[in-house]
Amino acid sequence: MTDIRVLLADDHPLMRESFRTLLDASPGFTPIGEAGNGAEAVQLARQHQPDVVLMDVRMPVMDGIEATRKICAAPETAAIRVLILTTFDLDEYVYSALQAGASGFLVKDTTATELLTGIRLVAAGEALLAPRVTRRLIDAFTSKSKPLSGTPRGLETITEREREVLALIAGGLSNTEIAEHLHLGVGTVKTHIGRLLHKLAARDRAQLVIAAYESGLVTAQGR
Protein backbone atom coordinates (compact mmCIF):
# COMPACT_ATOMS: atom_id res chain seq x y z
CA MET A 1 0.00 0.00 0.00
CA THR A 2 1.36 3.43 -0.96
CA ASP A 3 2.17 5.82 1.85
CA ILE A 4 -0.04 8.87 2.35
CA ARG A 5 2.02 11.89 1.34
CA VAL A 6 1.47 14.84 3.69
CA LEU A 7 2.44 18.50 3.34
CA LEU A 8 2.72 20.38 6.64
CA ALA A 9 1.71 24.06 6.70
CA ASP A 10 2.20 25.91 9.99
CA ASP A 11 4.11 29.06 10.86
CA HIS A 12 5.49 27.54 14.08
CA PRO A 13 8.65 25.46 13.41
CA LEU A 14 8.20 23.43 16.59
CA MET A 15 4.65 22.47 15.56
CA ARG A 16 5.85 21.38 12.12
CA GLU A 17 8.70 19.42 13.68
CA SER A 18 6.36 17.58 16.04
CA PHE A 19 4.04 16.63 13.18
CA ARG A 20 6.95 15.56 10.97
CA THR A 21 8.43 13.43 13.75
CA LEU A 22 5.07 11.72 14.29
CA LEU A 23 4.58 11.02 10.58
CA ASP A 24 8.15 9.76 10.16
CA ALA A 25 7.60 7.31 13.00
CA SER A 26 4.20 6.10 11.73
CA PRO A 27 3.97 3.41 9.04
CA GLY A 28 1.93 4.48 6.03
CA PHE A 29 2.78 8.18 6.13
CA THR A 30 5.44 10.29 4.42
CA PRO A 31 5.92 14.01 5.14
CA ILE A 32 6.94 15.51 1.80
CA GLY A 33 7.41 19.18 2.64
CA GLU A 34 6.92 22.01 5.12
CA ALA A 35 5.47 25.48 4.59
CA GLY A 36 5.74 28.38 7.01
CA ASN A 37 2.93 30.39 5.41
CA GLY A 38 -0.01 29.94 3.08
CA ALA A 39 1.79 31.13 -0.04
CA GLU A 40 4.49 28.51 0.50
CA ALA A 41 1.79 25.88 1.05
CA VAL A 42 0.22 26.67 -2.33
CA GLN A 43 3.60 26.59 -4.06
CA LEU A 44 4.67 23.31 -2.44
CA ALA A 45 1.28 21.73 -3.13
CA ARG A 46 1.76 22.42 -6.83
CA GLN A 47 5.33 21.17 -6.72
CA HIS A 48 4.93 17.98 -4.69
CA GLN A 49 1.27 17.02 -5.25
CA PRO A 50 0.66 15.65 -1.71
CA ASP A 51 -2.37 13.57 -0.86
CA VAL A 52 -3.20 15.74 2.14
CA VAL A 53 -2.20 19.21 3.32
CA LEU A 54 -2.28 19.65 7.10
CA MET A 55 -3.12 23.37 7.14
CA ASP A 56 -2.96 25.86 9.99
CA VAL A 57 -5.42 28.77 9.82
CA ARG A 58 -3.44 31.72 11.11
CA MET A 59 -0.24 32.17 9.10
CA PRO A 60 1.64 35.18 7.70
CA VAL A 61 1.75 36.28 4.04
CA MET A 62 -1.36 34.22 3.21
CA ASP A 63 -3.66 32.59 5.78
CA GLY A 64 -4.74 28.98 5.66
CA ILE A 65 -8.23 29.79 4.37
CA GLU A 66 -6.97 31.59 1.27
CA ALA A 67 -4.31 28.93 0.72
CA THR A 68 -7.00 26.25 0.90
CA ARG A 69 -9.13 28.15 -1.60
CA LYS A 70 -6.25 28.44 -4.08
CA ILE A 71 -5.26 24.77 -3.74
CA CYS A 72 -8.81 23.44 -4.13
CA ALA A 73 -9.72 25.79 -6.99
CA ALA A 74 -6.70 25.22 -9.22
CA PRO A 75 -7.10 22.30 -11.66
CA GLU A 76 -3.56 21.05 -11.03
CA THR A 77 -4.13 20.77 -7.26
CA ALA A 78 -7.91 20.25 -7.02
CA ALA A 79 -7.51 16.57 -6.07
CA ILE A 80 -5.44 17.42 -3.00
CA ARG A 81 -7.32 17.17 0.29
CA VAL A 82 -6.91 19.88 2.93
CA LEU A 83 -7.24 19.12 6.63
CA ILE A 84 -7.54 22.30 8.69
CA LEU A 85 -6.02 22.67 12.14
CA THR A 86 -8.22 24.84 14.34
CA THR A 87 -9.11 25.65 17.93
CA PHE A 88 -12.56 26.32 19.32
CA ASP A 89 -11.75 30.02 19.69
CA LEU A 90 -11.36 30.11 15.89
CA ASP A 91 -14.88 28.93 15.07
CA GLU A 92 -15.44 31.94 12.84
CA TYR A 93 -13.00 30.41 10.35
CA VAL A 94 -14.68 27.03 10.06
CA TYR A 95 -17.45 28.06 7.69
CA SER A 96 -15.01 29.96 5.46
CA ALA A 97 -12.69 26.97 5.34
CA LEU A 98 -15.51 24.67 4.25
CA GLN A 99 -16.49 27.10 1.52
CA ALA A 100 -12.86 27.22 0.43
CA GLY A 101 -12.86 23.45 -0.07
CA ALA A 102 -11.44 22.03 3.16
CA SER A 103 -12.31 18.38 3.77
CA GLY A 104 -12.22 18.50 7.54
CA PHE A 105 -10.97 19.90 10.82
CA LEU A 106 -8.83 18.84 13.73
CA VAL A 107 -8.23 20.74 16.95
CA LYS A 108 -4.59 21.46 17.71
CA ASP A 109 -4.65 19.54 20.99
CA THR A 110 -5.78 16.33 19.27
CA THR A 111 -4.00 13.10 20.14
CA ALA A 112 -1.46 11.49 17.84
CA THR A 113 -3.87 8.64 17.12
CA GLU A 114 -6.70 11.04 16.24
CA LEU A 115 -4.39 13.02 13.96
CA LEU A 116 -3.25 9.94 12.04
CA THR A 117 -6.81 8.64 11.78
CA GLY A 118 -7.98 12.01 10.52
CA ILE A 119 -5.32 12.14 7.83
CA ARG A 120 -6.24 8.62 6.71
CA LEU A 121 -9.95 9.48 6.49
CA VAL A 122 -9.37 12.64 4.48
CA ALA A 123 -6.89 10.91 2.17
CA ALA A 124 -9.53 8.22 1.52
CA GLY A 125 -12.01 10.86 0.39
CA GLU A 126 -14.01 11.07 3.60
CA ALA A 127 -14.83 14.35 5.33
CA LEU A 128 -13.69 14.82 8.89
CA LEU A 129 -16.46 16.78 10.56
CA ALA A 130 -16.78 15.90 14.21
CA PRO A 131 -20.30 16.42 15.59
CA ARG A 132 -19.03 18.97 18.15
CA VAL A 133 -17.47 21.05 15.36
CA THR A 134 -20.52 20.71 13.12
CA ARG A 135 -22.95 21.79 15.85
CA ARG A 136 -20.85 24.87 16.63
CA LEU A 137 -20.68 25.63 12.92
CA ILE A 138 -24.49 25.59 12.65
CA ASP A 139 -24.76 27.94 15.62
CA ALA A 140 -22.17 30.32 14.15
CA PHE A 141 -23.84 30.22 10.74
CA THR A 142 -27.24 31.15 12.15
CA SER A 143 -26.09 33.71 14.72
CA LYS A 144 -24.13 35.66 12.13
CA SER A 145 -27.04 35.52 9.66
CA LYS A 146 -24.76 34.77 6.76
CA PRO A 147 -26.44 35.54 3.44
CA LEU A 148 -27.64 32.51 1.55
CA SER A 149 -26.25 32.06 -1.93
CA GLY A 150 -29.51 30.59 -3.24
CA THR A 151 -30.56 27.00 -3.71
CA PRO A 152 -27.51 24.96 -4.71
CA ARG A 153 -27.77 23.50 -8.18
CA GLY A 154 -29.30 20.04 -8.05
CA LEU A 155 -31.07 20.39 -4.70
CA GLU A 156 -34.44 20.43 -6.45
CA THR A 157 -33.65 16.98 -7.91
CA ILE A 158 -33.03 15.14 -4.65
CA THR A 159 -35.63 12.81 -3.19
CA GLU A 160 -37.31 13.23 0.16
CA ARG A 161 -35.15 10.47 1.64
CA GLU A 162 -32.00 12.09 0.27
CA ARG A 163 -33.13 15.37 1.81
CA GLU A 164 -33.47 13.62 5.17
CA VAL A 165 -29.99 12.14 4.84
CA LEU A 166 -28.54 15.52 3.87
CA ALA A 167 -30.08 17.20 6.91
CA LEU A 168 -28.64 14.52 9.20
CA ILE A 169 -25.19 14.86 7.62
CA ALA A 170 -25.33 18.58 8.31
CA GLY A 171 -26.38 17.80 11.87
CA GLY A 172 -23.10 15.98 12.43
CA LEU A 173 -24.33 12.39 12.39
CA SER A 174 -22.11 9.57 11.18
CA ASN A 175 -23.28 7.03 8.58
CA THR A 176 -24.04 4.53 11.33
CA GLU A 177 -26.05 7.11 13.30
CA ILE A 178 -27.97 8.12 10.17
CA ALA A 179 -28.74 4.46 9.48
CA GLU A 180 -30.06 3.99 13.00
CA HIS A 181 -32.09 7.20 12.90
CA LEU A 182 -33.77 6.34 9.59
CA HIS A 183 -33.91 2.56 10.20
CA LEU A 184 -31.78 1.87 7.12
CA GLY A 185 -28.72 -0.23 6.43
CA VAL A 186 -25.36 1.54 6.43
CA GLY A 187 -24.89 0.45 2.80
CA THR A 188 -28.14 2.14 1.85
CA VAL A 189 -27.05 5.34 3.59
CA LYS A 190 -23.79 5.28 1.63
CA THR A 191 -25.77 4.89 -1.58
CA HIS A 192 -27.89 7.93 -0.73
CA ILE A 193 -24.76 9.94 0.07
CA GLY A 194 -23.20 8.91 -3.23
CA ARG A 195 -26.27 10.15 -5.08
CA LEU A 196 -26.23 13.41 -3.13
CA LEU A 197 -22.58 13.96 -4.04
CA HIS A 198 -23.41 13.44 -7.70
CA LYS A 199 -26.59 15.51 -7.82
CA LEU A 200 -25.11 18.44 -5.89
CA ALA A 201 -21.73 18.24 -7.67
CA ALA A 202 -20.05 18.04 -4.25
CA ARG A 203 -16.53 16.71 -3.85
CA ASP A 204 -17.09 15.33 -0.36
CA ARG A 205 -19.24 15.32 2.76
CA ALA A 206 -18.01 18.77 3.78
CA GLN A 207 -19.52 20.33 0.68
CA LEU A 208 -22.81 18.57 1.38
CA VAL A 209 -22.84 20.36 4.74
CA ILE A 210 -22.33 23.70 3.00
CA ALA A 211 -25.17 22.92 0.57
CA ALA A 212 -27.50 22.15 3.49
CA TYR A 213 -26.65 25.43 5.25
CA GLU A 214 -26.81 27.66 2.20
CA SER A 215 -30.12 26.24 1.02
CA GLY A 216 -31.70 26.87 4.40
CA LEU A 217 -32.43 23.14 4.76
CA VAL A 218 -30.65 23.17 8.12
CA THR A 219 -30.80 25.87 10.79
CA ALA A 220 -29.73 25.90 14.41
CA GLN A 221 -33.37 25.74 15.48
CA GLY A 222 -34.17 22.93 13.07
CA ARG A 223 -31.29 20.55 13.60
UniProtKB/TrEMBL annotation:
The modification 4-aspartylphosphate is found at D56. It holds the Pfam family Response_reg. One of its GO terms (molecular function) is DNA binding. Coiled coil: none annotated. SMART domains: HTH_LUXR (SM00421), REC (SM00448). Keywords: DNA-binding, Phosphoprotein, Transcription, Transcription regulation. InterPro entries: CheY-like_superfamily, NreC/VraR/RcsB-like_REC, Sig_transdc_resp-reg_C-effctor, Sig_transdc_resp-reg_receiver, Tscrpt_reg_LuxR_C, WalR-like. Residues 151-216 form the HTH luxR-type domain. Residues 5-123 form the Response regulatory domain. CDD domains: LuxR_C_like, REC_NarL-like. This is DNA-binding response regulator. It comes from Actinoplanes ianthinogenes.
